[in-house]
């Protein structure tokens, strides 16, 4: 208890989690490391945004059932691909979720994913965009962190390109 009390009484013990993440970002110079972190942050943020839209349309009971389905991650990836291709994910999700009833669907996630593919057609190959351009997150601490990660990845990619050109 004395050791824990001493630790808790220290002035420097109060670091916000985002501050710790930013400190780690300063020391990360691997594009693979940055990319892994960026992917996790952006994926979680995107999933949360999409789930909020569907919760509003489907209601809590049907949304809980959707969360429990194995195809839900594929649905989120389909929405993310459509978003990166220029589609408004909120509008798209509202349209496909209200197109026809979903109550009798064996897999709501698979039905919604099929409807998305039918609506947007064959998505074009992603354009060569910067990591910053691919970072669509809401404003806030986590969104700011995702944009910082993207900027660090763009800078690292530019550095690697310069090194390759020099060699």
Can you lay out the helices and strands and say which pair or pack?
Blueprint: H1 2-9, H2 17-27, H3 31-58, H4 60-68, H5 72-84, H6 89-98, H7 108-120, H8 141-166
Question: Your description of this structure?
Answer:
The protein has 167 residues and is an all-alpha fold. 71% of the residues lie in helices and 0% in strands. The protein contains 8 helices and no strands. Helix 5 packs parallel to helix 7 and helix 6 crosses helix 7. It is flat. The N and C termini lie far apart (58 Å). The mean pLDDT is 81.
Total helix count?
8
Tell me the strand percentage band.
under 5%
Helix fraction, binned, reads over 70%
Task: List low-pLDDT spans.
Answer: none
Roughly how many Å apart are the termini?
A: 58 Å
The radius of gyration computed from the alpha-carbon positions, rounded to a whole number of angstroms, is 20 Å
Q: Taking all residues together, what is the mean pLDDT?
A: 81
**Bulk shape:** flat
Quick rundown:
The chain is an all-alpha fold and 167 residues long. Helices cover 71% and strands 0% of the residues. It is built from eight helices and no strands.
Notable characteristics:
167 residues, 8 helices, 0% strand
